[in-house]
Design brief:
The protein has 45 residues and is mostly helical. The protein contains two helices and no strands. The longest helix has 13 residues. It is globular, with a radius of gyration of 13 Å. The mean pLDDT is 94.
């Protein structure tokens, strides 16, 4: 599987929130973001 890098700017507060959530779920931040993206629908395709 090919992968791409995505760089985003978010506040320290949001990053801590994301990191804490990932830790709680025993996942990486990348896994949390990928899980969310996978739930998005492709309406109009």
């Amino acid at each position: 599987m090919k992968t791409k890098e995505v760089h985003i700017r978010i506040s320290d507060k949001r990053f801590r929130k994301l990191k804490n959530y990932a830790t709680l779920k025993e996942k990486t931040v990348t896994q949390i973001i990928e899980d969310y993206i996978d739930r998005l629908t492709n309406k109009g395709d």
